[in-house]
Design brief:
heterodimer, A: mainly alpha, two-stranded antiparallel ribbon, B: about 500 residues, mainly alpha, 2 strands
């Protein structure tokens, strides 16, 4: 009985997220429209409390609870904290877009539920919990993608849903196969059962299970939803969609794959190839984009490739997990910062529209500079340290070729980020000046108070820099 | 003390960048004062330096989990370059007193750039080195893109950024290779120099050195990685060109003596011949292409390729150990470091003069001018002195540097050295021809009333040339600092 009590408290951060979602939902139903922000505030408080609870519980010994089905260790703790920060930033950057909307509360509730799903995904140490996490992390996202209730949002939601449903079924198939050949559903049982299982069946199970996770993280070949969903959904939803699910998905992939012996199935090579494909295809597709959101969408596909590198050497390099978690944290704040800039400039829909903004909005464009150069991996930003540690771990894990490919791709990525930054810092031309303040719907859009998004962008940029400069203690904390 | 020197410029940079109300004149003078303080600090550092070995060392844990620390210090290799950097930046600041185009952010950018340059030469940790290396590229990108005057400034800036960024990533790959090979894993330069972790590892050492060499060769630049340099220089503002050629190129050559040679000695010895050959080709090709230029600024840019070639020749020759005399090799490395300082000062002066030329005449084309000696006597004098210094006339620092390079390399690589001597001849010819076209003959230009060098420009350029002359006449104080450090490098390579 006593043990049960302890186990329940171990899930306090998850429960806070759930409670926050329920409370916000109830509060939102009773509040008048102009007071909906109270519900969002309640949700934000719950997220913050969840993060603090995770922080308070950090440092405990790694263990699994509920009959080895859920792991509470460094990876779970890190995911809880990173997700909490990312969810808070998402809620903040969504302020200008959702304030006054009849569905304001829904947005917050969906964010909380999806965050909960992603944490469960990361903590899952059992195949069925993994499946539950997948569903919990996916279904709110379908609604979130269509939250704007316009034609493009509907398309985004539909694409996301179709691919998610398909790959979800595939994942369940993989889970069934792994259960069949491994003789158990907990990872501990799999680790014992899989070495003696037939290689072909294990390979099928692993690949099919991985398919669901690839969908969650938006990696090639399950990346097709990314550009359309990001382009069709509202900017805050797109920011959330491309950031938070990746955290849970990658940690889940890491956890799952280390239980599979690489002598039976060479999943390292598979993941490495997927990483190369994601980085390269994401980069190639981003080259020609003329709109910031599509560019960012493809950039997230390529970023996932770098994150997968750490998964490819999971268990072989002692640095791999710390590198993965640090890169996730760095990526989350940097990517959200870039999306926040987009959210703060809703009327600037093309890269060209940013021309000359460096003079008019120096702080905001400064934040964009930090975030985009951060995504390239320019020191001293956080993603630089993330890339450095991931590259080191991959090299250490014996995949030097992967590091070389990734480094070359990093140079290529610089090109498209600069396509965005260069106009922003260039001198203003006459046509751009009239274009951005021209007639039409822009006047209405310009009336939106975007201060929250601007502030979020600045906070994220500062975080991206601070995480890089003060990376030392954090990396120590992430070491298993 | 050293950290103050590195980060001091960031303070005025932050103020200038953040406070939009600063008047232009105040911004310009803030920059000059900050750069002057840097020169004073570096002079104090030099006087207080007790060689040989590392002085003013600071080591603070930074990212221990990634094997990186904030580790800085100076020795005979870095101190002269730190001093040269401070002087060149001061010259750029004084020259830019006439800058009309957004002087406040311009000053902020250069001050930040100075921090990255100072930090790079003082860094004793590979990641710290890389951080400053990368940030210097970002800073220079904005200088060229924001203040470049060519039609294609944005494109040139992009080429520069992409190309040198590629180099920096090659460098990073090499660094990671060294890090993984070290036991325990570390990025500390002193530690890696002491243990040389890849020594005797065969192919791995060669691959890591290849990555590092590509990275450094792009930055230097040497043949065949030099193609970013001429457009970047053509479109950069004068102060930007001076810093780019004077300081940023030295990051590549400094990397040879600081990182590649001592940390990968046996691989370096294996590659020595290749490096010598690349050096000689850079010397000859740079000189020949410079000869063919019609633009004064492009010509100076290509002479940089030529002058960097001598450095490669020297450091390559220092790696040919068998049957050669360590004293000669020490002379070669000392010559290489002296050349870095000398070229930094001379080429900065030449680029600032090119800026004056374009400012008054509106063109870099040599054929647009003629008989300038009569119209602008001070400009002619300064340019002539700088050109003579650049071609290695005795009495100037270039002679001291190149003489040592040739004397030191002759024993190890006689044929290559003889071929490189030809480069001196070509450089002499092309610079004299350029002077001839600019200053003698009939007048082909229309100049405004007061066309000659203004006082602020003189105060920027003349001190550089005085230093060049001083080093040329009294090289001992400089060489005494460099020599022990280069002897140490030669010993490390030979182990």
């Amino acid at each position: 009985m006593n043990g049960m009590q302890e186990d329940t408290l171990a899930l306090l951060p998850e429960m806070l997220l759930l409670a926050g979602a329920i409370v916000a939902l109830l509060a939102g139903s009773f509040l008048p429209r102009h007071r909906q922000w109270v519900a969002t505030l309640l949700a934000a408080v719950a997220v913050g409390a969840s993060g603090l609870a995770a922080l308070a519980a950090a440092g405990g010994a790694a263990r699994t609870i509920y009959e080895s089905s859920y792991a509470v260790d460094v990876a779970t703790t890190a995911t809880r904290i990173i997700v909490a920060i990312a969810a808070l930033l998402s809620l903040a950057l969504a302020r200008p877009r959702i304030t006054g909307s009849p569905r304001e509360t829904e947005f917050a509730v969906l964010v909380l539920l999806a965050s909960l799903g992603t944490v469960v995904l990361a903590g899952a140490a059992e195949l069925l919990v993994l499946a539950v996490g997948y569903l919990l992390a996916s279904i709110p996202l379908y609604a979130l993608a269509g939250w704007g209730r316009d034609a493009r949002g509907a398309e985004a939601a539909l694409k996301l849903y179709l691919l998610g449903a398909l790959l979800g079924i595939t994942m369940l198939l993989g889970i069934a196969v792994l259960f069949g050949v491994g003789g158990g559903t907990t990872y501990a049982a799999l680790a014992a059962g899989l070495p003696g299982a037939p290689a072909a069946a294990v390979a099928l199970g692993v690949v099919a299970t991985l398919a669901g996770l690839l969908f969650k993280i938006g990696a090639v070949p399950a990346h097709f939803w990314v550009p359309d969903a990001v382009d069709g959904a509202t900017t805050p939803a797109a920011a959330f969609l491309t950031t938070v699910p990746k955290i849970g998905g990658l940690v889940a992939a890491y956890r799952l794959l280390v239980t599979v012996p690489d002598t039976v199935v060479d999943w390292r090579l598979l993941v490495a190839l997927l990483a190369v494909a994601s980085i390269t295809l994401g980069n190639l597709a981003a080259f020609t984009q003329d709109r910031p959101r599509r560019l960012l969408a493809y950039s997230t596909v390529s970023q996932v490739g770098y994150l997968l590198m750490a998964v490819a050497v999971a268990g072989r390099s002692e640095q791999a997990l710390a590198a993965l978690l640090f890169y996730l944290a760095a990526y989350a704040v940097t990517n959200l910062g870039a999306f926040a800039v987009v959210g703060a400039l809703p009327q600037h829909d093309t890269l060209d529209a940013y021309r000359g903004l460096g003079r008019r909005r120096p702080a905001l464009i400064g934040a964009l500079l930090v975030c985009l150069l951060g995504l390239v991996g320019t020191p001293p930003t956080a993603v630089f340290v993330g890339k450095l540690t991931v590259f080191s771990a991959t090299w250490d894990g014996g995949m030097q070729w992967l590091v070389v490919v990734a480094a070359i791709n990093t140079v290529a990525s610089l090109y498209y980020y600069l396509r965005w930054l260069a106009p922003a810092f260039a001198r203003e031309t006459a046509s751009a000046a009239t274009g951005s303040d021209g007639p039409g719907g822009t006047a209405v859009l310009a009336a939106i108070d975007t201060r929250w998004a601007t502030a979020t962008a600045l906070v994220a940029a500062v975080l991206a820099l601070a995480l890089g400069i003060a990376a030392g203690p954090l990396l120590e904390g992430f070491a298993p | 003390m050293l950290s103050v020197l590195i980060f001091l410029p960031l303070l005025p940079a932050a103020v200038l960048a953040g406070w939009r109300g600063v008047p232009d004149a105040a911004a310009r003078w803030t920059w000059v004062v900050a750069s002057a303080v840097e020169v004073v600090l570096v002079a104090a550092l030099w006087i207080g330096y007790q060689g040989p070995g590392i002085g003013y060392e600071t080591a603070v844990a930074w990212i221990p989990a990634a094997g990186s620390s904030y580790h800085v210090g100076v020795d005979g290799l870095s101190l002269p370059l730190l001093a040269m950097t401070a002087v060149v930046f001061l010259a750029a600041a004084v020259y830019s007193l006439a800058e009309q185009n957004r002087p406040r952010p311009f000053a902020a950018l250069f001050l930040a750039l100075q921090t990255t340059c100072m930090g790079l030469f003082a860094a004793l940790d590979l990641i710290l080195f890389f951080v400053f290396f990368d940030l210097s590229i970002v800073g220079m990108y904005f200088v060229i893109a924001g203040w470049g005057h060519g039609r294609d400034a944005a494109r040139s800036a992009l080429t520069f950024f992409l190309y040198t960024f590629l180099g920096s990533l090659a460098l990073l790959l090499g660094f990671i290779g060294l890090y993984v090979a070290a036991d325990p894993h570390t990025f500390d330069m002193v530690e890696l120099t002491r243990t040389a972790p890849l020594a005797g590892s065969g192919a791995a050492g060669g691959l890591v050195l290849t990555a590092i060499l590509i990275g450094l060769a792009i930055k230097t630049p040497t043949i065949p990685f030099h193609t970013w340099l001429p457009p970047a220089h053509t479109d950069a503002p004068a102060a930007g060109s001076a810093v780019l050629a004077g300081v940023l190129l030295k990051m590549g050559t400094y990397g040879f003596v600081r990182i590649a040679m001592p940390m990968l000695p046996d691989a370096w010895r294996g590659y020595a011949t290749v490096i010598v050959v690349v050096g000689v080709i850079s010397v000859l090709y740079g000189a020949l292409v410079a000869l063919a230029q019609t633009s004064f600024k492009r010509m100076v840019a290509y002479t940089s390729v030529n002058h960097m070639g001598y450095i490669l020749l020297a450091v390559g020759a220092a790696g040919i150990v068998a049957g050669t005399d360590p004293t000669a090799r020490t002379v070669a490395v000392t010559g290489a470091v002296t050349q870095m300082v000398s070229h930094g000062l001379i080429t900065a002066a030449l680029f600032l003069l090119a800026g004056v030329l374009a400012d008054r005449g509106g063109s870099y084309e040599l054929d647009a001018y003629g008989g300038l000696a009569a119209d602008t006597p001070r400009f002619a004098t300064l340019t002539a002195v700088a050109a003579f210094a650049s071609l290695g006339l005795p009495g100037f620092s270039g002679f001291i540097a190149e003489f040592q390079i040739f004397a030191g390399s002759l024993g190890s690589a006689p044929v290559a050295t003889a071929a490189a001597l030809l480069g001196i001849l070509l450089t002499a010819g092309l610079l004299l021809w350029a002077l001839h076209r600019l200053f003698l003959g009939p007048r082909r230009h229309e100049l405004p009333g007061v066309a000659d060098v203004r006082p602020s420009e003189s105060w920027a350029i003349a001190p550089l040339l005085v230093l060049v002359l001083l080093i040329g006449v009294f090289p001992a104080p400089l060489l005494d600092v460099i020599e022990p450090a280069s002897r140490a490098v030669v010993e490390l390579v030979a182990r």
